[in-house]
């Protein structure tokens, strides 16, 4: 029996699956793949695990370059979309597995590279998943995490998380910047690289992509406009686009790459 958070995840991503990769709504997810691949530095003999891989946007980019990729996710609609795309792309070395990432159904040391992108902020116990990622990574292999990161100011971080949760109720919490590298270090991995990037995104496609309820979308919009007019800080740095009219906001993305000694 799924708990209430698992139901929220299933509802959110069943709704998002058909348009998850639509360029107009989610450019940020597709255009950032090369940035992540640069950090993952895939090698031809890599056996890779994509943790909460969704439709396999990253897995499908990796598959032609490595030995094998496995993408695990809990939402059947996301997996179905991934399988459909992988078939169209003729990828024979990519497997989609349905499961929850809190207890990865794989042997210890089964993978040479284990990564999670935009997954941790949806998890109620992200640290447990980081430990699992380290467990299934082979000695000498790499573990990488790319995710949204929250401000180090707890008040601002609270606002940021409230906005993200209003947009998508399956959002749990963005970790504070720098926390993932600390956790990886505390669980015996050697942190090789931490990179941050601020991303400006248009507000309305971001809301449309998540299927944000009308009243919640209006609250976010109004909070952003109020901040622009000198009102309370949302932590999302609202601003106008280059056209001078459209509404934009800012996210901080962090990539951490570590290896298992
Ligand atoms: C924002 S999407 C990211 C998908 C993919 N990693 C990407 O970057 O394109 C988050 C994914 O996490 C999955 N997810 C959330 N909680 C999960 C859990 N506990 N176990 C497995 N998958 C989970 C959702 O089903 C969804 O596909």
Q: Can you characterise this structure?
A:
- This protein has one domain (4-152, 170-200, 250-260): Rossmann fold.
- The chain starts with a helix and ends with a strand.
- The chain is globular, with a radius of gyration of 18 Å.
- Strands 1, 2, 3, 4, 5, 6, 7, 8 and 9 form a 9-stranded mixed beta sheet that branches.
- It has helices at residues 4-16, 23-31, 33-40, 57-62, 76-88, 126-136, 154-167, 179-186, 203-210, 214-228, and strands spanning 47-51, 68-73, 94-98, 111-117, 137-150, 175-176, 189-202, 239-240, 247-260.
- It is an alpha/beta fold and 261 residues long.
- A hairpin with a 6-residue loop joins strand 8 and strand 9.
- The longest helix is centred in the C-terminal third of the chain and has 15 residues, at 214-228.
- The mean pLDDT is 96.
- It contains 10 helices and 9 strands.
- Bound molecules: S-adenosylmethionine.
- The site of S-adenosylmethionine (SAM) has 20 residues, from helix 1 and helix 4.
In a nutshell, what does this entry contain?
This protein has ten helices and nine strands.
Distance between the termini: 39 Å
Structural class comes to alpha/beta
Hetero ligands: S-adenosylmethionine
CATH topology tier name:
Rossmann fold
Integer-rounded radius of gyration: 18 Å
CATH architecture: 3-Layer(aba) Sandwich
Bin the strand percentage: 25-35%
The average pLDDT value, as a whole number, equals 96
The outline comes out as globular
InterPro entries: Methyltransf_11, SAM-dependent_MTases_sf
GO molecular function: methyltransferase activity
Organism: Rhodococcus tibetensis
Pfam families: Methyltransf_11 (PF08241)
